[in-house]
Design goal:
Helices cover 37% and strands 25% of the residues. By secondary structure, the chain is α+β, with helices and mostly antiparallel strands. The chain is elongated, with a radius of gyration of 32 Å.
Length: 398
């Protein structure tokens, strides 16, 4: 420890030096001179300050000195040594922000408590600072998360004969102790009518968490809404165009970032779905009559995540969405869900998703989505998923 001491008893200074320097673990400066005390406080860094309540000579001067220490060394704890006849002045110091004091008995037994008292003061001050920084981080994360949620649609309009529900759940992290914090992330979904005959559905997932992931996904959201409505129908050229622009984006490119995307359009008249994947999990289609669920396409279908390689031509694939069926588009946070501390067991995976979908065959689309998230939460034993999760469920009714 680096200890700055202001003491008003010349006979005790040698004893203080002897005890505090001890085995040489501490760096100690003890002085009776207020000018030097202030000069050393300004010119050096210290872990803790120890001073008498009447330093240099009176309680009023001690009070002024404590006030100056709080200005010169903010965040550095000050321990006040108080004689029995000086305790009456303590409330004044406590109101000024004093947190730590030491009873200075006449037998000088307090000498043996100084080391532990100073160590405790340092530990408490550092714990308070860590909690303050953690709270600041929580507020920052919450602000970014609210920014992200502002671009996620609430309330989905779909054409007659269809129903749609979607949900985004951010991940959780532990910032300090056992207190979880809801993270801002990079998941994003959207569902809108690009034209009178075209319904567009997409889910994107930016790498990482926090402000960068959020800004990456907001960049993509802006690009999606900027491009011509005519391009929405051709999923191949649309995703290729988004990729080209993201490859030029400094926000996405910094730190090796990228975005996965599943982009699809539904022709309302023919009920055919065109889709393109950029490194994203493929959709699942459920026949509600037979209760069969299968993955649309092969794992090799699609192209690399967005923002990695310019000039990529992303292929488009098609499927027909039959009556009485559901199409599930999701981010990998759903499949990758695991109970905390159990990385040795299989994740929720596609098997868990398919099982939950089949269990909800007779439910309406809202309850089916609730059941999917409930099943995933049960699998994680209530710990919450540690990656962002977005799910969009589109149903064609009979």
């Amino acid at each position: 420890m680096k200890i700055l001491v202001g003491w008003n008893d010349a006979e005790e200074i040698d004893l203080l030096n002897l005890y505090l320097i001890g085995g040489g673990e501490n760096e100690v400066l003890v002085t009776r001179e207020s000018d030097r005390f202030l000069k050393e406080a300004e010119e050096q860094s210290w872990d803790v300050v120890l001073m008498t309540v009447s330093f240099p000579t009176t309680g009023d001067e001690g009070f002024e000195m404590l006030s100056k220490m709080r200005e010169i060394l903010p965040g550095i704890p000050t321990v006040l040594a108080v004689r029995p006849d000086e305790t009456i002045s303590l409330p004044k110091f406590l109101k000024r922000g004093l947190r730590f004091y030491l009873y200075r008995d006449e037998n000088k037994d307090y000498i043996f408590l100084i080391q532990s008292t100073l160590e405790s003061a340092i530990a408490a001050a550092r714990a308070e600072e860590a909690e303050r920084l953690a709270e600041h981080l929580r507020r920052e994360i919450e602000g970014v998360r609210m920014l992200q949620e502002a671009i996620i649609p609430h309330g989905l309009d779909v054409p007659a004969g269809y129903s749609a529900v979607a949900r985004y759940e951010p991940s959780e992290v532990t910032v300090m102790g056992d207190r979880p914090v809801v993270m801002a992330g990079g998941d994003y979904y959207d569902l809108f009518c690009a034209s009178e005959t075209t319904l567009t559905a997409l889910i994107g997932d930016a790498s990482g968490h926090g402000l960068k992931a959020c800004m990456s996904i907001m960049t993509m959201h802006t690009l999606v809404r900027m491009l011509s409505s005519e391009q929405f129908r051709d999923t191949s050229s649309f995703v290729s165009a988004i990729n080209q622009r993201l490859c030029d984006s400094s926000i996405v490119q910094s730190g090796g970032g990228f975005i996965t995307l599943l982009y699809s359009t539904l022709d309302i008249e023919t009920h055919r779905v065109s889709w393109t994947s950029a490194g994203h999990p493929l959709p699942l289609l459920q026949n509600l009559t037979t209760n069969e669920v299968w993955q649309v396409g092969k794992n090799s279908d699609g192209g690399p995540p967005l923002g990695i390689m310019p000039g990529v031509e992303y292929p488009a694939y098609e499927l027909e969405m039959p009556e009485n069926s559901r199409l599930l588009i999701y981010s990998d946070g759903l499949a990758d869900a695991l109970p905390a501390g159990k990385a040795d067991i299989p994740a929720f995976g596609m098997e868990g998703i398919v099982r939950a979908m089949q269990e909800s065959q007779k439910m309406n689309v809202d309850d089916a989505l609730d059941h999917l998230f409930h099943s995933s939460n049960q699998f994680t034993e209530g710990e919450g998923r540690h990656d962002d999760t977005s799910v969009l469920l589109l149903e064609r009714r009979s």
